Every structure is written in structure tokens, then in C-alpha cells.
Amino acid sequence: MNRTSAQHVRTAETATTQLKMRPPSLRGRRLILIDIENISGGAIRTLAEARWVQRVLDSTLGLRHQEQVIIGVSKAGAIHVGPVWTSARMVVGTGIDGADHALLDVLNNENVAVRFDEVVLVSGDGIFTKTVATLGGHGVKVTVVAHRTSLAKRLQMAASQTVTFTPRQINLEGAA
User: Fold this and answer.
1) Which tens digit of pLDDT belongs to each residue from 57-105?
2) Boundaries of each NYN domain copy (predicted)?
3) In sequence order, which residues have a C-beta less than 8 Å from that of residue 121 and are 6 or more positions away?
4) CATH no. for residue 54?
5) Number of domains the chain contains
């Protein structure tokens, strides 16, 4: 067995061990991370835009009240997102890719692989590829939800599953 194969076996064994050690209360949990501006096509400038994204994602994901939802948003958009997504946690970023970096901070620093069986990432940005692949290596099912036209190919390959949509259509696909 070469070195790379041995590393993959250890990763799979570690993931299996983590799942067995996880208390029953943490099994079957789904974390939803939303790069809201990626879905809206830009900064959220009105309450109506925030409501539209909420409706689209609710119909696409079937959001449940007990799920943890974290929304990455710019400072300017936070004032409109907060009143609509009242039960979600907002992480605010500034500058180019600020919301992406705020969500990456959650994914990389909050023991997501230990606490959740599934992560739904609502973004097509390639910046998430490495983190999505790492989560998958730890046994976490990662579903990426994005506009068909803005889904990075590397991110699609790293995900366990992708859900793409256009304004009129939702498509469920496996990993490419």
C-alpha cells in the first residue's frame, strides 16, 4: 500500500471512529450555511430580496425549525437579512469575499465534522472546495446548492451531492 492509500484508509477509519463515538443527540444533524449574496446575485438591498432568497431556499431545501442555519452576509446586507431570517445566526464579512471568509471561519474552526452528519453549503464559489473535500474525508455528507451557471466545477467534484437551480428549475445531481 502506497503512502497516499494509507492516508486515505486512516482518514476513513478516523471518520468511522468519530461517527461511532458521537453521542446519539448529535447524530443525524444538518448544518446549513448560506452565502446569501451568492444566491441573490449581489448585496441584499431590501427586505423583499431577503424574503425572496428565503422562499427559494425553503422550497429547495425544506428547511426545518430545529436546524442550525448560518448566513454569511456583508455589513450592508445584514440590516435587511436579520429581520427576515430571525432564527438564523449571521456571520458578517467585509470586502471582497467577506461573507465567504466568515463562513469558512465557521467551517474550519467550529468542529463541524464532529457535530454534524450533513452540511448544506448554499454557494457555488470555488473558495470552499478544499474545506468541502476535507469535510467529506471526515465522513460528513456535503450538499452544495448553487445557481447552475455559478457552480465552480472543483466545488461540484468535491461535494457529495449538488443541487442546482435556475429561476424556473431545480435539479438534483450526484457528485460529478
Assistant:
1) 888 888 877 789 999 999 989 999 999 999 999 999 998 889 999 999 9
2) 112-163
3) 33, 35, 103, 128, 132, 142, 143, 144, 145, 159
4) 3.40.50.1010
5) 1
